[in-house]
Amino acid sequence: xxxxxxxxxxxxxxxxxxxxxxxxxxxxxxxxxxxxxxxxxxxxxxxxxxxxxxxxxxxxxxxxxxxxxxxxxxxxxxxxxxxxxxxxxxxxxxxxxxxxxxxxxxxxxxxxxxxxxxxxxxxxxxxxxxxxxxxxxxxxxxxxxxxxxxxxxxxxxxxxxxxxxxxxxxxxxxxxxxxxxxxxxxxxxxxxxxxxxxxxxxxxxxxxxxxxxxxxxxxxxxxxxxxxxxxxxxxxxxxxxxxxxxxxxxxxxxxxxxxxxxxxxxxxxxxxxxxxxxxxxxxxxxxxxxxxxxxxxxxxxxxx
Length: 304
What we know:
D-Maltodextrin-Binding Protein, domain 2, five-stranded mixed β-sheet, 11 helices, 43% helix, disordered N terminus
């Protein structure tokens, strides 16, 4: 009896998640379809230049980072390279890949001004960003967390009241905490300080300049896995979809990117990458969530 009730509850939860994610994905597709214009498609630009300029992260593990040998690696990086491979094959195998480092403050300007053709990292789809850039099929979902010392009194969202919290510059954390403060959700406002990259934010946490460093939960698990002096608090006040940023007016390029990602999902490669970068024994061990299971199911599009 209990097993049946548990199975029913699980199915209902998965159905609800599917409906919510499906609605978001549908809105994503409609917004793209409504964008008119005559700008050069990114695929044509790449063919003309003979170069695929890929914007990658140097220190946003496990999404994208440089390994000990100086090579760009990571969960998002591997999928982005697969898209380059597909584009190169489509254009006859003559396209060179140039890897360009980007950070939060530089990623959108680099895409808009043509320095890069696609940005691969931990970028969240937002309405504001959709007014400037486009996105490929979502490849991950995340939420905001806080990295704190192991002995910190911070254990929940409520404990952030009147605390000094660091955030990545150009990320969604600043407006998220601004909104919390404006709504007076907490007993006292959160004092937010922005840092140009995660390493500087964590250094500030080490020196006691801030009480916690807030960013995507997977990124924080990566830091926590390196030392038992840290732990991650999942404050659970949001959930976001992440995707690769591309230039608008690029339906031909986006189709290749989306089909490549759908094949990665459907072939089991996405699950393998998750295990590699987020599974037990990885650099950022994090349990698979129901939301991620639904994302994998929905994006495993049939080939015909």
